[in-house]
Amino acid sequence: MPIQRPTTMDLQEAALELGLHFTEADAASFHGLMQAQLDAYDLVDAMPDELPTVTYPRTAGIRPEPQDNPFNAWAVKTTIIGSGRGKLAGKRVAIKDNVCVAGVQMANGTKILENYTPEIDATIVTRMLDEGAEILGKAACEYYCASGGSHTSANGIVENPAVPGHNAGGSSSGSTALVVSGHVDMATGGDQGGSIRIPASYCGAVGLKPTHGLVPYTGIFAVELTLDHAGPITRTVADNALMLEVIAGPDGLDPRQHGMPSQPYTQALTMGVDGLTIGVVPEGFSMAGAEAEVNDRVKEAARRLKGLGAQLLETSIPLHPAGAAIWTPVFLEGATELMMRHNAYGTNMKGVFLESLLDAQYRWREHADEWSETMKLGILTGHYMSSRHRGRYYGKAQNLNRLLTAGYNLALSKADILLMPTTPMAATPLPPADAPREQIIARAFEMVGNTAPTCLTGHPAISVPVGLTSDGRPIGAMLIARHNDEMLLYRAAAALESIYAS
Fold this sequence. Notes:
Blueprint lengths: L7 H10 L6 H23 L27 E8 L10 E5 L26 H8 L3 E6 L33 H8 L5 E5 L6 H7 L2 E4 L20 E5 L2 H11 L29 E4 L11 H16 L3 E4 L8 H19 L13 H7 L11 H17 L2 H23 L2 E5 L15 H9 L6 H6 L3 E8 L5 E7 L5 H15 L2
Parallel strand pairs: 2-3, 2-4, 7-8, 7-9
Antiparallel strand pairs: 1-3, 4-6, 5-6, 5-10, 9-11, 10-11
């Protein structure tokens, strides 16, 4: 069907949006000149889409009833049987609901997208099925993934399976709850400010944010190209390394990737930490809201690594406390531009574009009043600052990111691995249903101080459980490595896990 042609009046209106002031004669002239360009659009529109093929049969699935949905962690339940052979044979998997699974609804925690069904599988979904995984459904996530708490999804709160009544962390809340409760063996997560590692810390799981670009983001709902990370959430370090072996490496489609191949990460699990230098980052223990018990347990973990042969070194990163502040303009203005103004795709990049998702996401303009409180605040701030200040603060933050990255690189030139608490505090109580907006916002962002900086710098970081608080809340220690050194990261993570395994 030919592209609908504008009238000359339509062109005059469009010109005014650009600051152009056309006379009727100007509009008529440009109307004639535009026709050849619109003929090219007609040709493009008539061609078939070039999209990845879908191999494995599946059903659309259902949203389970409350009695069949523990912790409110499932968004959709379905069954997709993979190849039956490979590294993930016998593994049950949940897919975060920001990831495309062909023929299965993807709502991304919203009501806006609740009837949207993608026509492709994300690269990581195809890779897991090819390696024998069985997908059991889509895991609930926070509203547009814009919360470190588990209380913003349009389908209601996700409860912490380790500490009932408490925050499960976000935005990969359902993924982590399903893993920790044993309903699946592993799950996909996404991390733009801590959304894999925060729920891992709060619930007692192992969650890895890989090096930026190591895992392809093709077929995953984008937030901000320079912050987007996808990674594994599991109960054990071994399963985490195994899952990364399967999903990592270039797919030739994602513009975030830089050609780094997957590595045999599971081979690092038995190498130990003898001779490694663990850099304890003091700034990571003095973040706002830090709990003394959390700090003490993570420092104890460092001492116990020393008992396994590691050397300890205090390794300062002076800019780390400002990392979350530097991250804020990038996250807010970047997400406003890419997720909202450009409907999760934008321009000036290559990759797989889903017209169906572009159309579905465009509807946000009709439903903005339905957003979560975290989305309202974030997009309002991002829109106001970018529209009133010409993007200067986004740009300045990206400039400062080079200093932050250099600070991490300097610390990692002195130590093999960096160590700090994943979250300054352990899991907090869920806000009540009638909580004021201020409390809802606080529970969503109070914990990102240590996780957000490495989303900016792109360094790989993993959260490993290191025990419980005196009242039973899980504590996570975060290990950080050099870019593309997940092998060394898993080496240290497995050693740390072994201390607390008994």
